[in-house]
Structures are given as C-alpha cells and as structure tokens.
Amino acid sequence: MNLSGIFSFVFTLLILHFEAGKALTCRGPLRTITVSQSGNAQFKTIQRAIDSVSNQTQNIRWVRIKISPGVYRQQIIISRLQSCIYLEGAGSKSTFVQWNGHDTPFTTPTFISKADNIVAKGITFMNTFNRPVNGDEEVRLVPAEAARIEGDKCAFFECAFLGVQDTLNDHYGRHYFHKCFIQGAIDFIYGGGQSLYEECTLFFSVGRDLPEGRGGVFIAQKRESREDRSAFVFTKCNITGNGKGKAYLGRGYRPYSRVIIADSYIGDVVSSAGWDPWRGSKRVQDLTFVEEGCWGPGSTKSKRVPWMKRLRGSALRRFVDKTFIDQRGWITRLPVNSSLPN
C-alpha cells in the first residue's frame, strides 16, 4: 500500500472510531465491583478490577468500580473496548492513585483511559516523578502526566490531577470536568479535546523554583485547523497558585489553539500579558484566546496581548453551555446523575 493509501486507511479508521463512540450508549443495570487494599473486597488493586471487565468485545453495560480509601501506587489503564466504566472513589482527599512514569505520553501516565464513556468521581490521580514524595530526591523537570484521556464522552467529578509538567493530557474527544482540582506548572492542561471545565480550580505550583528561562503556563490547547471543533472552555473556575512566580494562562500549542475562560476568578499568579503565541502558531490572528466576565487581581486586561479575542452573547454561550460538548444528553445519563435505562 502506498503512502497515500496508508494515510487514507488510518484516517478512515479514526473516523469510524469516533462515530462509533458517538453512537455507543451505555446501559444498566449497574454492576458494582469493590476494591480495597485491606482485602475486604473483591479486588485489592484498581487495575485487577478493571481487568475483570472484558476487553475482547465492546462493553456496553455500566460497571461501577467502588474504591475504598487508600494510596494505590499503581498505573491504571482502561483499554479501548472497556467502555462504560465508572470509577467511584471515597473522595479526592482519601482515595489516591500514584505513579512516577515520565517522558513518554503514550505509555507512562498514572491514568490512561482509551475507552469512550468513562466516568470518575472522588479520586486523586498523581504523577510523583516531578514532585517527589516521602523524602525522595529532587529530579529533573520533564513531562510526567497524571492522566491521559483519549476516549469520547468522558466525565470527571470532584477529582484531582496533580503533577508539574503536562499534568492532564486532555487528548481527544468530548470531556466534562466538574469541581476538579488540577495542579501543575508547565502546560499542565494540554491536548486536543473538546472539553468543558466547570467550577474547577487550576492551581499553579511547582513545589520548587522553575529552571531559569522557563516560565509557567496553565493551558496548551492543540487545535489544528479552522474546521477542528476542539477547544478548552473554563467557566466559573478559580485560577490561582501558591505565589511563587508567574504563569501565562495559555500558549499557542498549535496553529489554531482555542481557549475560552468565562465568569472565573483569575489570581495574581497570572502574568500581565496573559497569553503567549509560542512556536505553535506563526499567525496570532488564528489563535482564539478569550477572557469574558472574569475578576480578580490577575484579570486586568490593560496589558494583555492585543490579539486576544472577544466573544459576547450567543457567540460566547455557544461554548460555555453544556451543549458545546453534549447535544444529546449524555451527561445527564451518567450513573453519577441519574438512574440508568435497562
């Protein structure tokens, strides 16, 4: 097969996967699996519980994995066919998943979710490589992801994602984050997802000084073209930090990067310019970086970059409303929100 034929074949597979993800509707009744490190449950590790869900055929029934409090030092991987899994922790301050993988985003994140229709609630996902714990020695600063989300129609409620560089890889698909806490220092929310972050906290912190010449960045969105529907939208969020250094709200990770921040608090950790074109875009007019209805000491626009966009009225509502990611009600049908259809 020649190069153009291979490209066409791969592109077709990607389209078929995305369309299949949109068509898949998980159903009830809800089956529950329990996890506890004490042994007083069906499984001692989260991965063993996930592995009990078939990955030979597409799962279409909701499976709740109820996780007891504890620190689970393990990597978690949900494969492409293991859809319709609901990870229910005991709260982000009592259920922790920790791993120290780094450098390779495809294989090393603490949590890798490849399937569509994945939900998590009340769990902290932490990559410890750039943020040593328990007295470990300080290490070099490299990409070390706490989570990589690849599937469509995935949602996270009251979860925390902790890291330093590339904490949350919001890679691809429609995603919803509600009341989540996301911490890092460099591009700590990045990727090409079509995602809505509602009532979340974005916390700029490294736990140590950044290397000389490296500034902080909250968001790096990778929209590739005008036709690309992806964007990161933040509404009713709290954008703050620990007061050590300054950070850009976002930078042009790809030529058409798109980030909308609305009705949110912006703290004084944000640099006065606000946004950085970076090397991902040669034409700043193609970038869509928006702040509307924000307040706080870092929200002053007098020194913002002149190419920042404005969105008002229906143009803004198009993004901040849940219909931006959910026109058919998949969020309201999640097991955290409602009873499930049989």
TrEMBL record:
<protein>
    <recommendedName>
        <fullName>pectinesterase</fullName>
        <ecNumber>3.1.1.11</ecNumber>
    </recommendedName>
</protein>
<dbReference type="GO" id="GO:0045490">
    <property type="term" value="P:pectin catabolic process"/>
</dbReference>
<feature type="signal peptide">
    <location>
        <begin position="1"/>
        <end position="23"/>
    </location>
</feature>
<comment type="similarity">
    <text>Belongs to the pectinesterase family.</text>
</comment>
<keyword id="KW-0964">Secreted</keyword>
<dbReference type="GO" id="GO:0042545">
    <property type="term" value="P:cell wall modification"/>
</dbReference>
<feature type="domain" description="Pectinesterase catalytic">
    <location>
        <begin position="33"/>
        <end position="326"/>
    </location>
</feature>
<dbReference type="InterPro" id="IPR011050">
    <property type="entry name" value="Pectin_lyase_fold/virulence"/>
</dbReference>
<keyword id="KW-0134">Cell wall</keyword>
<dbReference type="GO" id="GO:0030599">
    <property type="term" value="F:pectinesterase activity"/>
</dbReference>
<dbReference type="InterPro" id="IPR000070">
    <property type="entry name" value="Pectinesterase_cat"/>
</dbReference>
<comment type="function">
    <text>Acts in the modification of cell walls via demethylesterification of cell wall pectin.</text>
</comment>
<dbReference type="InterPro" id="IPR012334">
    <property type="entry name" value="Pectin_lyas_fold"/>
</dbReference>
<keyword id="KW-0378">Hydrolase</keyword>
<comment type="pathway">
    <text>Glycan metabolism; pectin degradation; 2-dehydro-3-deoxy-D-gluconate from pectin: step 1/5.</text>
</comment>
<keyword id="KW-0063">Aspartyl esterase</keyword>
<dbReference type="Pfam" id="PF01095">
    <property type="entry name" value="Pectinesterase"/>
</dbReference>
<keyword id="KW-0325">Glycoprotein</keyword>
<keyword id="KW-0732">Signal</keyword>
